[in-house]
Specification:
alpha+beta, five-stranded mixed beta sheet, globular, disordered N terminus
Length: 725
């Protein structure tokens, strides 16, 4: 998940992280580029004629339901002219602030920054979302133009000394301004954003930072594009019944290609896991396993050298800014605080998880007899053990998890906890599979539009995520509510057939729905910290806590009904799901923590250490061997396809999912102690201090306001079947 909001200057750089998850004409003496050398960083030719903009949908007021983009009217050729014009207007907004002869005030500096660049919102967020869900060669080419352009503009603004001095003057006078709580937080975060961008440094240092930022922008874009193309390129083509041995009928139907008269398995995670679990053809499991783990590792789309260069540049930039490493810079305002704090936490879970994984490996080797157990056997044999130990087969549970029923279950949960209602809306989406819902609060007031895109396709990036086409604000009583999206990559079933979900996919849907609620329910006025806000190791908490409701008997009764008979999932099957909850937990924990430790290793490098790395795989292998990773388990993401950290916003922060699990496990423990998973008082505090509060306060304060105490790690370890050290 990456954060998506209305685009003010303080969040222009956040858009760039998502993208990789946005009538002055920029004259050379423009005040946005007053520092020596920085003028060169934003000298893009922004000239655009009236003829080029004629009929451009981004220059019109959208007369669409809820103000969604008019997707059918937008053409690829519309994006670049619209971006250029919006950047002209952004520069004009900044010039007004910088050239103001009045003393700096909250209104003429901080608020003016918050509302600047408004015309960039529509085009930047639409472009960022479409290139994630329905990209093509033309859009990929545009990414290489637009994102570096936005990076240069962001640097020219945040590194502008005149602008920074105005922000600093207001910040220094903050105690005498009698600001409200939200206004004080906006001032604090705006000032922090400038400082962390490097605004306080000497011009020559700022020039170096700007140059590094631009190069990183280009590299992260290339990394993501390489990965998408490599993922799309691999196909495991099955033409005989022997090659499909073990595959369920619904899975076979979903992957059958009528044109090729063959079953085709790609590297979509859901399809990959289904094949690895079900297939009895060991050789083909090995082929798919290698196709998955060796993506983007050779040839012209080898991401290894790109990962090295990104890590080197981030290390260099961190040193310029006075930090020991990029990880030290990133974690400064996170809950973990330091790389050592994050690593120590990970190791507390790594040690029991790895020990459990070794026991799981031994059990599966026993099933193999004389044949040596290998990594591509893990998924398949783990499922065999689950069936033997718990009499639980995912093909038995899938008929109870029809997509539409699961979605309605998530909506029902939000109704019981927070009083929300969801009504399907007639809205044209960016793709025919998009389904939208008008979301209202307990009083019947419109909260936002929730748009869902559940199916995999070659033009769509992998994984699952929450995004938005418009964020939230309430400035000068102009109430703007969000356009929130959830995206998954479920296999598309044949026409007329239902979409039946694996239990892990059900959990993922509830997870992304939690992010969606965080965006929909926000009651913060200022885009800078409304919606999905906070440090990375906190923002997963509102998503992950909802996963706990998925398997509660009271919850299952509400949505887990057989797609043919309407029968509620049997109590004995629910009990099997509960008993099997921690099956294969050693594997899941180890592969995840391995990736998290790898992320920290890449981003804890000093410039000197980073400069010595010439082979990404060799570095990765050494790091994981030093931690004791067994060869039968791969990290969840190898470096060359670790897009979270090399093409997204999770650098030095992939550990956040597990850290947030401290919060979600401890938070749900409060509901268990209350013996009511719908406890109204707890739900009200969860709503006020988590889903509605955005980044109003530091994350630890928000959590304490909800829970009444600091979180404990014990519920996390207990939930994974581990004992506390």
């Amino acid at each position: 998940m990456n954060r998506r909001k209305i685009l003010s200057i303080s969040r222009l750089l956040a858009l760039l992280l998502f993208a990789t998850i946005t009538a002055a004409c920029g004259e050379p003496n423009s005040s946005t580029t007053t520092d020596t050398g920085l003028a060169e960083s934003a000298t893009d030719d922004l000239a655009v004629s009236d003829a080029e903009l004629e009929g451009n949908p981004f220059r019109a007021t959208w007369q669409t339901p809820f103000g969604v983009p008019p997707f059918a009217e937008i053409e690829t050729a519309d994006y670049l002219p619209a971006v250029k014009k919006a950047l002209q207007e952004l520069r004009a907004d900044i010039d007004v602030i910088v050239n103001n002869t009045e003393p700096p005030t909250f209104d003429n500096t901080i608020m003016a920054l918050e509302v600047s660049g408004d015309s960039l919102n529509k085009v930047a967020y639409t472009f960022s979302n479409i290139t994630g869900t329905d990209t093509n060669d033309e859009l990929r080419a545009l990414q290489t133009q637009i994102y570096p352009m936005l990076t240069r503009e962001s640097d020219a603004i945040t590194l502008n000394d005149v602008l920074y001095q105005r922000v600093k003057a207001v910040f220094d006078a903050r105690d005498s301004l009698n600001l409200g709580e939200q206004e004080a937080r906006l001032l604090e975060l705006t000032h922090r954003g400038f400082v962390r961008a490097g605004a306080a440094f000497a011009p020559e240092v700022k020039n170096q930072i700007a140059a590094i930022n631009e190069e990183i922008s280009k590299l992260t874009t290339q990394f993501g594009q390489n990965l998408l193309l490599e993922t799309k390129a691999f196909k495991l083509v099955l033409k005989t019944e022997g090659e499909t041995a073990g595959l369920s009928s619904d899975f076979k139907a979903a992957i059958y290609d009528e044109e090729q008269k063959a079953w085709i398995v790609g590297l979509n995670r859901s399809a990959y896991e289904s094949f690895m679990v079900q297939s009895t053809n060991r050789a083909l499991r090995e082929d798919l396993f290698n196709g998955y783990r060796l993506r983007a590792s050779e040839g012209e789309r080898d991401n290894g050298p790109i990962a090295i260069k990104i890590a080197q540049l981030r290390a260099e930039r961190a040193t310029l800014m006075g930090y020991e490493s990029h990880a030290h810079y990133i974690l400064e305002y996170n809950m973990a605080k330091t790389p050592a704090g994050a690593e120590d936490f990970l190791l507390r879970v790594w040690r029991p998880g790895l020990a459990q994984a070794k026991r799981e490996r031994a059990d599966m080797q026993d099933l193999m007899g004389e044949t040596t157990f290998a990594a591509w056997d893990w998924w398949h044999l783990a499922e065999k053990l689950r069936l033997a130990r718990y009499d639980l087969d995912e093909n038995t549970t899938k008929p109870y998890f029809k997509l539409e029923s699961v979605q309605q279950g998530a909506f029902a949960m939000a109704t019981k906890l927070f009083g929300l209602s969801f009504e399907q809306a007639d809205v044209e989406g960016w793709n025919p599979v998009v389904v939208s819902f008008d979301v209202k609060d307990r009083a019947g007031e419109h909260l936002g539009l929730f748009m869902t895109d559940m199916y995999a396709r070659d033009s769509k990036r992998g994984g699952a995520w929450m995004s938005s086409y418009r964020g939230t604000s309430n400035i000068n009583a102009e109430r703007i509510r969000p356009l929130i999206t959830n995206n998954m990559n479920l296999p598309m079933p044949p026409a007329g057939e239902p979409t039946l979900m694996r239990f892990s996919d059900v959990e993922t849907l509830f997870h992304e729905f939690g992010h969606g609620l965080h965006g929909l329910m926000t009651q913060i006025d200022y885009p800078t910290f409304s919606g999905v806000d906070g440090p990375r190791d906190y923002t997963e908490f509102p998503a992950q806590i909802l996963e706990h409701w998925v398997s509660q008997p009271e919850m299952l009764e509400m949505y887990a009904t057989h797609y043919e008979t309407g029968e509620v999932i049997p109590t004995e099957l629910v009990e099997k799901i509960r008993q099997a909850a921690n099956h294969n937990q050693g594997f899941y924990t180890t592969e995840y923590v391995a990736a998290s430790l790898l992320d920290l290793a890449w981003h804890s490098l000093t410039p000197a250490a980073a400069a010595k790395i010439t082979d990404a795989r060799a570095f990765e292998k050494q790091v994981l061997e030093d931690y004791g990773l067994i060869p039968e388990i791969e990290p969840r993401y190898r470096s060359q396809y670790f897009s979270h950290i090399f093409a997204g916003g999770y650098s030095a922060g992939y550990y956040a999912y597990l850290w947030s699990e401290i919060l979600d496990a401890d938070g749900f423990d409060a509901f268990k102690q209350a013996e009511d998973i719908w406890d109204p008082q707890l739900a009200a505090r969860l709503q006020k201090w988590v889903y509605e509060a955005g980044g109003l306060k530091p994350a630890d304060e928000l959590y304490r306001n909800f829970r009444g105490q600091d979180p404990s790690i014990e519920p996390l370890l207990e939930g994974r079947g581990f004992k506390a050290e």
